[in-house]
TrEMBL record:
Domain UspA: 9-142, 152-281
Protein name: Nucleotide-binding universal stress UspA family protein
Membership in a protein family: Belongs to the universal stress protein A family.
Pfam family, one: Usp
Matches recorded under InterPro entries: Rossmann-like_a/b/a_fold, Universal_stress_UspA, UspA
Superkingdom to which the source organism belongs: Bacteria
SUPFAM superfamilies: Adenine nucleotide alpha hydrolases-like
Provenance organism: Isoptericola halotolerans
């Protein structure tokens, strides 16, 4: 993924303050990456046992979609309007399916985060479901997050999966924002047996991080790449590291069905609790075929 995103950015809005904040972040990202921005509003069609229920009025839904989309587009100032093509699209079907479908072609899908802490991890929230099912990167924007370019791009690095998609996104964003990238690996406390066997050594972790920094540094020589290790679990380490002005980039695995998601996984928890924008890219394990 380069600094310019020809596939564009898609942002979902639903009329809530959280979704308009996500729109502002997506608009700034589109300007940085010379990308078109598509604003999408999707209203699910309520169905009865056989036919649509009487309360379903297509004309009311159409007028509501126009109102929400117009309010989003009106947030674009004259300067940005001249540099970022913005289109508004009312989509049929539920917001989750519409945003997942758009992720096939878009360089990035953006959604807002809403709800109290106790409910953010519930199965079925639009942001978490889109992040788990999308075909490409998804950015989830909490209301506390800075709407402009981040001060840092923090990457949660593990060594079990292919980091290519994750680091491509992180370095492209860092280059466009002229900010540093922090490659952070959390080292869980080793058992006595593991220590005696020589595993989980700090020098091995540092060598692996330096290898990643060198590989992506050759593609993005102007990006300041910093390495960090923290003792403990990845969730606690990353939550302690990031601030609302950062962008946190994580890897995850795509799930075809919501029931296949692992509630409590590292991306799932951080999507609900991180104070900054969280971007999730989908990674693959070696020799594993994604269904």
């Amino acid at each position: 993924m380069g600094e310019t995103w020809p596939g564009g950015i898609v942002v979902g809005v639903d009329g809530s303050p959280e979704s308009y904040h996500a729109f502002d972040w997506a608009l700034a990202a589109a300007e940085r990456h010379h990308a078109a921005l598509q604003v999408m509003y999707a209203e699910p069609v309520p169905l009865g046992p056989v036919t649509p229920v009487p309360a379903y009025r297509p004309e009311e839904i159409w007028h509501e979609s126009q109102r929400v989309l117009r309010r989003a587009v009106d947030r674009v100032d004259a300067r940005t309007r001249g540099s970022v093509p913005v289109t508004a699209v009312p989509a049929e079907g539920g917001p989750t399916s519409a945003l997942v479908a758009s992720s096939r072609d878009a360089d990035l899908v953006v959604v807002g985060r809403r709800g109290a802490a106790a409910t953010r991890h519930l199965l079925g929230s639009v942001s978490s479901v889109v992040a788990s099912r999308a075909h490409g990167p998804v950015a989830v924007v909490p209301t506390r997050a800075r709407a402009g370019p981040p001060n840092r791009v923090v990457v949660g690095v593990g060594f079990d999966d292919d980091p290519t998609a994750m680091l491509d996104l992180a370095f492209a964003e860092a280059q466009s924002c002229r900010c540093p990238v922090v490659l952070l690996h959390a080292v869980p406390p080793s058992s006595r047996v593991a220590r005696e066997a020589g595993s989980a050594r700090d020098e091995d972790v540092q060598a692996a991080l330096r290898g990643l920094a060198y590989r992506w540094g050759t593609q993005y020589p102007d990006v300041d790449c910093r390495l960090a290790t923290r003792s403990g679990g990845p969730v606690a380490a990353l939550l302690e590291e990031v601030t609302p002005s950062d962008l946190l980039v994580l890897g995850g695995h795509r799930h075809l069905r919501v029931v296949g998601r692992l509630l409590g996984s590292v991306p799932d928890v951080l999507l609900g609790d991180a104070p900054c924008v969280v971007a999730v890219t989908h990674t693959t394990r070696p020799h594993v075929t994604d269904e």
